[in-house]
Amino acid sequence: MRGLKNQKHKLGYGYKLVQRALGILQQGAHKGISLVLSFCLAFQPLLVQAQAIRAQSPVVQESQGIKAAEGVSSIFRPTVGVAGNGVPLIDIVRPNGQGLSHNKYDNFNVDTHGVILNNSTKEVSPSQLGGLVPGNGNLRYSGAAKVILNEVVSANRSRLEGVSEVHGQTADVIIANPNGITCNGCGFINTPRVTLSSGLPIIGADGSLSGFRVEGGNITIGSHGADGSSLDIFDLVSRKISVSGPIQVKGELAVIAGHNHFDYHKREATSLGSDGKEPEFAIDSSEFGGMYAGQIRVLANDKGAGVKMHGNMVANAGAMRLTSDGKLVLAKARAKGAVKVHSHHDSVHVKALLFSEKAVELKALNNVELAEHARVAAGDVVTVNANTIKLERDALLASGIGIDGTQSATGSLHLQATKLEAGEGRIAASDLLEIQAATIDLSRAQDNDQAGVSSLGDLTIKTNQISALNNHIGAKGNVIVKADGALTIGAGHYSAGGSLLVEAAQLRSRANLVAEQKIDLYARSGDLFQEGIVLSNGEVTLDAYGALNHKGDIIGVQKVAVTAGGMVTTSTNSTLLGHDVGLSAGALTQAGTIEAQGGALTFQVRDGVINNGIMRGESINAHAGALTNQGTLIAIHDLHLMLNAQEEANSQQASSQQAFLENASDALLQSGGVFVVIAGQLHNAGALGSSGESVALNVAGDMSNSGLIYAKKSAALSLDGALTNKHGKIIAEDSLTIGGLEKERAGHVVNEAGVLSVVTGEMKLVAASLSNKGDGAANGGQQDAALKEQQETKSNEEAAYILARGGLLIDVGTFENIDSLISTQGAVSVVADDITQ
Q: What's the rounded Cα separation, in Å, for the pair 671 and 630?
């Protein structure tokens, strides 16, 4: 009974635990907002920093000048001169029918004074770099060029340290040098598009520039950077690219490295295959090598070649895309549009900050890793796909975050991997959070009561194994954890503001599961092992195709339903508690506490029930193949036990060979209301009966009692087999009837040193025979004295007693009354073929 008292307030306690778990989830969501806010503000000084870098120190190396190529046709040889103020002036060659002016050089170097590419058809006109400049005579009959191609055909590298101005009509500018190009303070005027390339130009059959064939060379952006602040398009196309200073572009910036064919019109690169010269990092940006543009695209597609971006990246008007075949390392990046980062055959590493006002996509063949304190977030959707996703300590991955740090109502987060390691980091979504990984490790060194994985919408996890020791995982909406095969959920705390579903072929859970609404645990084709805590303000359902093993606490404020095709086993100290509790199983072995607090306890068990613990309900309705009670089974009101096969339920009969009820010594089987048993056999060595109503025991076979059977009102023992009451007591307040079930009479009734007693009413005994005998001589006396004595002693009387205050009817074939006492204050009727005294 002490165990029952301990359960008294558990439903209220369960409600409080649910609220605490959901509070941790809410607190974790707000903390995520503040973290991202600090992350977003960190971007504000980036552009200022870039501008400050360009203003640092003067140029330290003088240019070697510009020299037209020797030994080439005059149609490719520009005229190199100077403007009135000494700035180099190049009269570009006559453009062809496609508007392409193809100029070839031995040297093409621009010093700090800059260079003027003369595309003017006017007699004289002012330029920004050189003042008044005469028109270009080469354009007299062709008109101005649309594309100015400057190609170096010698073995000399180009160094660009000043501004290149297109004078006259605007035109695209290309500088192509297979030996390489260094831009250290270069800039461009009056041109919408500039391309720097170490590839060989390819001229199409129609005379237009088709693209470039990149075999080698490199492009270096020095500490003074590249100023493309007036450009719509700025393309860097080379085998290898290094960036040590800021690149600023008004429109689109493309940085493309590799052994490629570059299509000039489509601005797309196609690999020419491996030549064994692939660098580890084809694009390498230092801490000061920032990129600032409307849109940014970075590509390194040589086999195994990576991208290392230690500088800042800002796409302030559009998207940002970084793609590599090898490792991709990213420090700080922000974009107005979507950000896509993809390593085809290696890993993606985010060292510090990555934010998009739209969406973020991280994809890698191997790993996606967020370094310690790193932040990756988006205003809308975040998608991460890799073999392993890893978040180091204090790393954050979040969706639905505005640039000001506010959290929107939309913004899903999708993670797909073979393995997810994020125990010391944080994952937060404003909307749906989807995680798919074969193995998930969310374990922490210690519990700080903060949600490591949280969603303000729903959370869906698909995995085979998840561990979250000392961590909190949850959603304000629904939580779903699923596996195609077996699923193991290690320690951890899972909470849902809505419902929580865990489903797998076979399920083992040691976690704490909490939901505001309902919780469902489902093992589709195998066993279910529940070893943690399950708390719901609504219903809790556990459903196993095979066996179900419960070792923790299950509390459903409304209802708990347990279903298993095989054995249900509950361990000592386990709890299964709800307002209503229903259990359906192949078999039940119960050592804990199962309680319907305020409602009905029902169970339907195909085979046997063994109760070594506490089972309690306002009412109990049970169907089972058999029941062995070695603990406590109590109904506050009515109790119905039907121990028979399912197909025999309607006939209320049972097989005398299988459907037994055994109530062991020191066991308690009790109701406060009506107590009804239908069984094949009944054996009682403990206490069995009703403290407030009648008892009906319907037994197809034999019944034995060495304990106490009692009824506050009437008791009816209906059996077709034998009744043996040895050292036991069968007591009813109002009346006691012993007779047949299907037959007219009971079998043999043996009252050996036992008590058959009716306190106020009549007793009727109809049997094949009655043996009322003691172990020694019976003492005489009034019935009241006998009743008092037998009720105050713990059985073991030497005499046998049949006591009925209101009257006694005995109808038997043979009657044996030896060393016993039969007493009544009412009428006595004994009908027997043979009487022995």
A: 16
